[in-house]
Specification:
By secondary structure, this protein is of the alpha/beta class. The chain has 11 helices and 13 strands. It is globular, with a radius of gyration of 22 Å. Bound molecules: pyridoxal-5'-phosphate. The site of pyridoxal-5'-phosphate has 13 residues, from helix 4.
Amino acid sequence: MAGKPKASKQQIADLGEWRVPLPKVGRSSAAVFAEMFQRKSGDADWINGRVFSLVYPTGRSDIDGVLLESNLAYLFENALNPLRFPSLGMMQFEVVSMVSSLLNAPTGSGAGFSAGGTESILLSVLVSRERAKAEKGIERGNIVFPLSAHPAFAKAAFYTGLEARATPLAGDFTADAGALRDAVDENTVLIVGSAYGFPHGVIDPIEELSDFALSRAIPFHCDACIGGFVLPFMERLGYDVPAFDFRLPGVTQMSCDIHKYGYATKGASVVVYRESQWMNHQMFAYDRWPAGFYWTGSVAGARAASPVAAAWAVMNYLGEEGYVEIMRGLMATTARLRNGIAELPGLAILGSPAGPLLAFTSQRDDINAIGDVMDDRGWHLGRVNNPSGLHMMISPLHATNADEFLADLADAVADHGESRGGDAHYN
Ligand SMILES: Cc1ncc(COP(=O)(O)O)c(C=O)c1O
């Protein structure tokens, strides 16, 4: 069809002349699903562990069963109004409470459920802007974050009209605390660090940043979107994990995604605040509507209920012991991959990743050329830049094909052509 737009990452599309009419007559469900699955067959093969971000497969049919059943049980409900669906409201309370406990949030803390890390971060930034306005009279605020912080912080600044100040990294890819301090001024409404960050999986100097934020009485968001369901269980296994959560007095708010290493299906994240009263700033209430008083505590209006149910179900199904056991295996797979990569000629891990996420470069070859060979062999690695590298978020399922991956990587290191010029991309 002429002018058909190419698939893109955007949720918006310039359709031009291209139109798909609603079919006049519906098709059979068999025909609909035949077409859907035919299209799906061209997607990345995550189910066989070929993908290293976006999905977090455990490879366990019992866990997948819990997720399927809980999603189905709440497929049609609407989380906009938990008063109509008290079971949903209660599960939501319990989920945010369990996450708060995991992060050692003190008595008096508050937490909210959101659809993902980006929304949790957006809410946290909004709350910080509003607190700064109410408590300090700051009208044109800024937020300060290291370059490695997730783009959700820049996006939140864009949405809230704050200035985004991104600061350089230290040589080990952690936040350069000095640069961050220098960027802070009297209009800074929020300081950010990650435990750990997406690009290299390294933990920022959270304690140092916490102390600094406290000394300046500025809120400090520790982003544990990935680490929140990793670091606590590594700690239980005896790994040396630096303090990163509410045990540090300067940490005022945190984000933690259940839909990453909490293994819930997508749409489940939690934002936690040291003081519950701050959450009033993320509430939107409107009483002039003919349909009555309207209020929400997050961005969406109507909201999927199944992510709440799935998060509650998987957390209760696994429990602390279940997560710890998964983490034990996951760290063993991570060590296998890490060592295997480091043994290949020229390859080097970037920085000191804390958990099952790493990026590696080559000191000998063009790493993007190696990445191209891996792409051609059906592996979906992410890419990082400055320096160029390949990126992997390791999931429990990768225990099944780590050796195949390393063998293909060895081949790619030994035999690759010129790079096709691939830039860093997020996949
Ligand atoms: C450290 C970190 N923070 C925030 C996010 C944003 O989370 P989401 O994609 O669920 O919105 C991500 C996503 O990968 C992340 O890695």
